[in-house]
Structures are given as C-alpha cells and as structure tokens.
Amino acid sequence: MPVNSFDNYPMSWKPDFSRHTGPKYLSLVKMLEEDIKNGTLKAGTKLPPQRELADYLDINLSTVSRAFKLCEQKGLVCSSVGSGTFVSSDATAQTLLLCEERDRHVIEMGAIVPFTSCNHLVRQYMEKLLKRQDSLNLLSYGIPEGTKRHRSAGALWLQKSGFTADSAQILLAAGGQNALTASLGACFERGDKVGTDPLTYPGVKSAAKLLGIHLIPIQTRNYEMTEEGIRYARQNEGVKGLYIIPDFHNPTAHTMSLETRQMIAKCAVEMDLPVIEDGINNLLADAPLPPVASFAPESVIYLSSLSKTVSAGLRTAFLHTPRRYRQKLIAALYAMNISVSPLLATTAAGLIEEEIAGQILSERRQKIRERNLIVDEILKDTQVSGTAASPLRYIHLPESFTGKEFETYAEKAGVQVYGAERFCVGNKPAPNAVRIAVTTPQSTEELAEGVKRLHKLLIKKRS
Amino acid sequence: MPVNSFDNYPMSWKPDFSRHTGPKYLSLVKMLEEDIKNGTLKAGTKLPPQRELADYLDINLSTVSRAFKLCEQKGLVCSSVGSGTFVSSDATAQTLLLCEERDRHVIEMGAIVPFTSCNHLVRQYMEKLLKRQDSLNLLSYGIPEGTKRHRSAGALWLQKSGFTADSAQILLAAGGQNALTASLGACFERGDKVGTDPLTYPGVKSAAKLLGIHLIPIQTRNYEMTEEGIRYARQNEGVKGLYIIPDFHNPTAHTMSLETRQMIAKCAVEMDLPVIEDGINNLLADAPLPPVASFAPESVIYLSSLSKTVSAGLRTAFLHTPRRYRQKLIAALYAMNISVSPLLATTAAGLIEEEIAGQILSERRQKIRERNLIVDEILKDTQVSGTAASPLRYIHLPESFTGKEFETYAEKAGVQVYGAERFCVGNKPAPNAVRIAVTTPQSTEELAEGVKRLHKLLIKKRS
DNA sequence: CGATTTGTACGTTCACATTTT
DNA sequence: AAAAATGTGAACGTACAAATC
User: Fold this and answer.
1) Residue A81 burial (CB count, 10 A)
2) CB pair distance less than 8 Å for B210 and A139
3) Which range is most confident: A4-8, A392-396, B92-96?
C-alpha cells in the first residue's frame, strides 16, 4: 500500500486497480483504453506522470512505462519527455474520409473527386484498344513491374514534370493510394516513425495505421518543412523517413519552393532518409516545379497517380523507385494486389504515348482555373490559401471557429467541407481552417452556391 | 568473464561479442541476422539454448531471450519450449512467387495462370457497356462498399456456391489478394498469430509478412485441420484466427469434407475465432460444397475472386463479411486502394447477372477436366493428389527427392514446377512433393509435353 | 544556466509452463 | 511418472536523456 492517501491528490486519472487480475501492465492498458473510448478521458487530457501513477497504484515505474508504451503504439496516447503523456487527438477520430454516403441535398466540397468531364476520351481510347486482336491479353494477369511499354509510358509521363527518369526504375500500382501504402510497407517496418507535415493527406494516416507506422509532424515554416525540423526529428525522435506532398499540398494547397525541394533532397541523401514524394498534383501546375525525386532519385520514391490528372477510373499510378527499394516495393505491391489491370494500365500508357493524356490535362487545368476564379471572387475578403491552379483551397477561419465547428455549421447550411482536424498528425491542436475541394461540385453553379453559403457563415461570425 | 573456457564446448553458434557497442540485445540480433544472411547459420540449425548462450557471453538469460524474441518477430528464427530455437526455413527464402520473368524455353507449370480462352465474352460485354450513355461514370471513383447492383451481383454469385448471402454484407476488392490482405488487416493486429494449413498459399505469407502477422501451422489429418489441432493452437499458441482454402487447396489440391467444414464453423463460433475463407476455387467443383461461411456467416470472412473462375483481368473479388468486421474491412480496403475500378466491377456484375459468367465457368471447368485427363494418363503410375476438376495437382515424390531438388531437375528439363518448400509455414520440413499448375501451359500439347518430362524424371529416380 | 520534472532504455531477478528425456 | 531442459513473461531497479522551469 502506498504510504500516503492519494484521495485528495490532484490526479487527472485515477484508475481503479483493485479488481483486476492478470498482468498489471495489461490491466492498465485496458483501463486506459476503456476510459478513452467511453469518454471519461478526453482528447488532450494530460495523464499523471508515470512516477506518480506508479506510486499511487503502488507498482513499479517501469510497469506504468510499459503500459503507456503499449498505449502509444495503439495510438491512444502520445508522450514527450519533460511535458508528460497526453490522450491522443486521433484516439477516437475515425481515419476514414471518403466513404460517407452522399446526401443529395448537400453540396459536396469535402471529398476531392476529380472531374469526369474528359472521360469520353479515355473511353474512346479504351474502345479502340478492345477492338484489337491481341486485346484478350489485356484481360489476363498483369504485374507491378509492368511491361516495357508501360514503364516507358511512365517515364514519358514523369518527363512532363521535368523528371528524366530511368524506365527500369518504374513500377505500376493500382492507384495512388495503393502505391502509397506499398511504399510505406517497403521502406519502413512496424513501429518506425515517419515524418509528415503537421497537417497531411488522411490516406497516409490510414495506410500508416494499417502498417503500424507512426506519423510524426515535422516543424514547418510558411507551410514548408525546415531543415532544423528534419534534423531534429531524425536525431531526437528517431524518424526514419518522410512523406511529402510538394504540389498543392493537401490540405493547405501550398506549393513547395524550389529551395525547399532541394533542401529536402539534400537531407534525404545526407541523412539516408527515404522520402516518399506524392506527386499527385504536380502536373496540375502550369509550370510544374521539378519533383524532389529529380534531385535525389536514389533516395526518393516518387508517386504519380493519374486519378487527379487524367482519369480516376484508370486506377493506375506510376512509381519511380530508388534501386535499393525496388525489390521490396515489388514484394509489397504483390502482397496487396498480385496484379494490376493490364487493360487499365495499357489504356493509361496509350493515352500518354498519343498525348491524349496531355490534352486532358490541359483541359482540366483550364477548368480548375475557371472554378478558382469563382471561388476567389466570392471569398475575396477572406484569407484563402492556394493559387488559381489548385484543385483544393484552404480557408483560414476567424479565431472563434474551429475547423470542426465550421464543418458542422456548413453541413447545416448544406455544404460539406473538411475541417483541419481531419488532417492533423500528432497531438498539437489543429489550426482553425477548413479545406474545400474545388473540383468536386457537379457544376460551376453548384460550386458558386456552395462557396456563397460558406461566405455567409464566415461573415456572420465575424460580425 | 565466464569462469570456464567455452572454446571446446559444443556450441552451434559462437558469436563474437567483443567488438560490439550499444545495447547487448541489439548486437545479438544484428549478429544473428548477419550470420543467417551470409550463410554461416543454415536453415534448420539449432541454436544454443538461451541459458548457455547467456553463460557463454556472460550476459543475463533475459537479454538473450529478448534478442531471440526480436529475431522471431523478424521471422529469422522459430523457437519452441523444450526443444530449443532454430533458424527459420523461411529466413532466406523469398516470399515472392509470381514475379519471375518467363523464359520462353521453359514450360511454365509453376505459377497458376488462369485461362484466357473465354476472355472474348468479357471483352464483348465490356464493349457493350462502354457504348452506353452513362458509361462515363465507370471511369470515375468507386468504393469498396460497391453500389447496390454490385453487391446484389455478388450475392447472386455466392448463391452459386450454395451460400445464401445478405447483399448488405458484401464488399468489393481489387482482386483476391487485395481482399485477403485487407481481411488480415481488418481482423488481426501486428504480432497476432493466425493458423493455416502446414502448407498454404504463398500469397497469404506475403500479406502476413507485410502486416506483421505470424502464420502458425495447424495440425492436420488427411490434409484437413483437426479440431484438437485448432483447440491446441488457440489455447497453447495464442492463435487468434484461421485462414483456410477448402476447395482444391493450394498446393495439395485437397477439397475439404463437409464434416470438417461444419467442424471449423463450429470452432469459429465457439472459440470466437475469425476465419478467413478463401473460396477462390469453390466454383470450379462440379457440385461445390457449401462454404464454411455458410455455416457461420458472422464468424467467417468469405473471399470470392473472379480471377480463376471468370477472368483474371477483371481484378474483382467479392467479400462476404461478418457485420462486426465490416467497418474495419472497409477501412483496410480504403487504406490499400481507396477505389475499386467501377468499370471492372460493373463488368463483373453484368457478366454475373446475365449468366455469362456461368457460361464461362462451365467452359473453364470442361477445359480443366480435359487437361486433367491428360495428366492422369501420363502420371497413372504416380501418386498425384487432386481430382479431375482441380486447377492444380500435387505430385508426391519418391523419398529421395525433396521438392526443391525436383524443382531444380525439372527446370533443367525445361519445366517449371513449385516444390512444397514454397508453401511451407513454420519450421517443419516440407514434404517431398511439388505442385503443378494444370491451367498454365498455353496448350494441351504443351501440358502433355511438360508432364511427360516430369514423368521421365520420376521414373529415372525410382529405378 | 542549473535544477527539476518527466519519459526512455536496458539489464536483472524470479516464477512458471511446456516439452523432452 | 519424475526430472531436466528450455523458452516465456512479468516486474523491478538503475542510469540516462530530453524538456521544462
């Protein structure tokens, strides 16, 4: 028994340890888990220091430590030396994003759904392809290595970004998410830490969760990772690699400067940090900046999905991989897929070779630009990040609004947006902001209507 | 320093501990890893008992224990109480299977490649589909939940197996492997143990490796898991679930009896063991036995890929999921894919609705049957498992031949087959056997030629 | 800057369960 | 059936490192 009575001690969590059987540390984990899930412990709550808890429960410090460690692995808490252990903000939040049923009355500006407008060109090409004699092979198995033709098309595609790639280093995946998950699986082990922006694409959160990889926010300045931040994370937090979205970053819509791209490439090489670069939006820029991968092709896995740029239905992504990760990447892609669809991959390749993909791309760019004009006009008195070429925009909210709150108000007004909380990594509170998808509404009218409703909410609150 | 000199002590492994810095247990892991990879320690070698090693290195028992534990997690070694710790057979073996480049001079009977013969029907249907006005949507995003139509088609498809399924419990995946990996990810956590047959589909090994799940062989009798085996594994080895292939099991070609199906269903329910049932070959049987899932639909995830039965290029699999795993499964599928191709899924649905899939299926069954007649004729004096409906056969080798050896000899004779070692789970030595794929050779002539060459090898050895 | 708070890491002890002999 | 061999797991104590005050 503890010498002192702790009944009056100010402790944020007082688990009842008496009735539990079995290993102490597991009981502790279980209680913590329950109390977080049933709401007794809210996100952000500071737990008692390990020593105090150990003292209170009359067990050894290391036993508490072990329990907390396990909880951290489960993503329930997050601790840092000096300041203590806190209940994770992610703990209760769902990682899913896109899978909500569409409500007809709501203008969808949350999920990013690419245009379908140019799909007739894709269809047309596919029909042509199917008519060919040898098309029956397109309905057989395919492999992540792709055929020579697929790989060359991939290289041609990356060339558009100013990245002269070796086609022998290209692989195919069944879409960007597939490529991302495989890349994480290939570069990292369970329990490894990977640095990301403090806000990032939720898909990487899902993938990391599935694979048991922890995401750590890297310090940023003006929405770009800093060299000190990367060095610090590497040395002090044991971060093993990075995930970055240099172009029209999700959700902040920021495009990374050339200097930072080179800095990250340099860091990757020097510190031997594998970097996964999500080039999903690269080609949406009018003059795409060169990928980080182009400065460090043997340290960076470059992902280029065609969903946003050509057609979501093609389910094809190209990966450019450092040679040392090639085998592992192939293994990971196999483990998730065995086969990519040769029909879709070949269609993608054909569209690229015949420059139809380029046409579609420019039409899409044009459309995005038109839509952003509308957004900028309506929100001209509001702080909105992202240029006219961006497929998504990031609205900074007044102090008094959290992203989540605004999301709720917007929903009541019939507009779906996503609050910054959905993109948050680690434990820091999310900024007051929401992301809007410019490409998702069915028409420019719908877009305008949606943005107007958002504007009204913003004005109302301000006054 | 140890009191005695161990220089003459019979120890199978004498790591040089002197020059290493840092944590002792990590040094040990590193040395073990190196010695296994560079061949100093061969697969199956018994390592010294933890106590002796500890004594020899003059460190604590638990330190060795911890190091060994870590190595086990990495799949390097495998230990069992009483008998000791052994170098894993998997340790150096590659988990990959299908990704080897095809050699033109070799008759491929290793990898299982489904027929392409009926693909014209698939193509025809797809062309029809693309001509429709609303086909542009087929090139947009799709979701794992599928549309109502996709799900109903899935239910109709499962009905063919005698499994009356609720379409609300059906999900879609981008192929069988995709479905399998997602299922493992949804049901289990990193470090969990899952029971399989002692020989099993290598794809499940890749997936498990990616997710950090350990596969444990379950005791079998006549190629079927026994109830005692399952109970034992559950209670004494902490096995959390099962993976089974009841129909034309890979690689043994065995089809599970009705009694065992019911037994497994009963076990699943009673012991609360999630079961992943791979129904990939179910419909290839002339009179398919009911899936285990039909006896325990709330405990079994049933996977039905169309690759083997309709067309590999469709990249579509249906999953029937217990309600309690539905959300997790959706999350896992999202994390790997975000989207299934609506074009391919809708084609699959259409083929099922219009019974074209059924036609293709019977034609494929017929073809397999014809091919097996050839195999049986040539190998009539050999012990070969599998019936005439089986897409793969399992050849029992003479005592003196290991599967691996035979594989090498066969390759020299210009035939690729897969030795039982490739399918092995855990540490027990693989039986002397090889698997041959009946469907893979381009023609019946090529098949006959391949089997004849194998026969010659078998005869030669016997005499 | 130095002291304090706080979490982290490693090695150790001991009790135990299972398998083999 | 008993004894020995062998791996497993929990809890502990100590030293340390980072963050905060």
Assistant:
1) 6
2) no
3) A392-396
Q: Are residues A371 and A281 in the same domain?
A: no
What is the phi/psi pair of residue A392, to 5°? -145, 155
In a domain, A37, yes or no: yes
Give residue A97's pLDDT band: very low, low, confident or very high (50, 70, 90): very low
Which are the contacts of A3, defined by CB distance < 8 A and separation ≥ 6?
none
User: Is the residue at B182 inside a domain?
Assistant: yes
pTM: 0.90
Residue B438, domain CATH? 3.90.1150.10
- pLDDT (tens digit, 9 = 90+) per residue, B366-423? 999 999 999 999 999 999 999 999 999 999 999 888 898 999 999 999 999 999 988 9
Q: Which class for A219: exposed (0-12), middle (13-18), buried (19 or more C-beta within 10 A)? A: middle
Burial status of residue B133 (CB atoms within 10 A of its CB: 0-12, 13-18, 19 or more): exposed
Q: In this structure, is residue A5 part of a structural domain?
A: no
Q: Is B326:B171 a contact under the CB 8 Å cutoff?
A: yes
Residues of chain A with pLDDT > 90, as a percent, come to: 60
Q: What is the largest CA-CA distance in chain B?
A: 86
Of A173, A175, A196, nearest in space to A186 by CA: A173
Query: Is A177 in the same domain as A249?
Result: yes
Tell me how long chain B is. 463
Q: Would you call A357 an interface residue with chain B, using a CB distance cutoff of 8 Å?
A: no
Would the pLDDT of B363 be above 50? yes
Q: Could you list the residue range(s) of the whole structural domain that residue B146 is in?
A: 119-358
**Are residues A413 and A272 located together in one domain of the fold?**
no
Do A138 and A152 lie in one domain? The reply is yes
Residue B360's closest CA among B115, B118, B153?
Answer: B118
CB A109 within 8 A of CB A441: yes
Tokens coding A346: 């070949």
Residue A333: list chain B partners with CB under 8 A: none
Counted across chains A and B, CB pairs separated by less than 8 A come out at 188
CA distance B85 to B304: 38
CA of A298 to C1' of C11 (A): 40
Asked whether A290 and A257 are in contact (CB, 8 A), the reply is no
Structure tokens at B235: 């209670």
Contact present, A135 and A366 (Cβ < 8 Å): no
Q: Could you tell me if A308 and A113 are in contact, meaning their C-beta atoms sit under 8 angstroms apart?
A: no
In contact, A242 and A194? CB cutoff 8 Å: yes
Contact residues for strand D with beta carbon within 7 Å? A 23-26, 59-63, 80-83, 236; B 47, 49-52, 61-62, 65, 68-69, 72, 79-85
What residues does B217 pair with on adjacent strands?
A: B196
Same domain, A275 and A416: no
pLDDT for residue B100 is more than 50: no
- pLDDT tens digits along A172-182: 999 999 999 99
pLDDT at B4 over 70: no
- A340, A358, A376: which is the final residue of a domain? A358
Rg (CA), chain A: 24
DSSP 3-state assignment of B215? strand
Q: Which of B131, B190, B206 sits opposite A212 (nearest CB)?
A: B190
Q: Which of A113, A130, A330 sits opposite B123 (nearest CB)?
A: A130
Q: Which helix (H) or strand (E) holds A231?
A: helix A227-236
Sequence-ordered list of residues with C-beta below 8 angstroms from that of A389, at least 6 positions apart, any chain: A248, A284, A285, A286, A365, A368, A369, A372
Nearest to residue B110, comparing CAs of B445, B441, B460, B457?
A: B441
Can you tell me which residue has the tokens 């060994």? B68
Say what angle helices B342-353 and B356-378 make with each other, to 10 degrees. Answer: 80
Tokens of A93: 């939040």
- What one-letter code names the amino acid at A343? L
